[in-house]
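Record minuted for everyone:
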Amino acid sequence: MALLALRCYLKKKKENKTTLIEETEVKHVDKNMRVKENIVKGPHGKPESVVVSMEENCHVDDDIIRKKKELEAQKNMHASSSS
């Protein structure tokens, strides 16, 4: 009999609470650009040509932050709003 009463109490307690999950999405963007310039000299030491190379890196990280909140449900929602 005591186990039945405990089970009913726990079930009622569980029904009175609702869980609210709040999610926030965070994005981190990291952009890098590298420019490299090389001057190629000719046979007499004069600059013959210029070589320019560019590297571009882009990193994106996605994070999701979750927060749990427990709220107690109101059984007499209509009665409390009219009061």
Summary: The chain has one domain: 2-82.
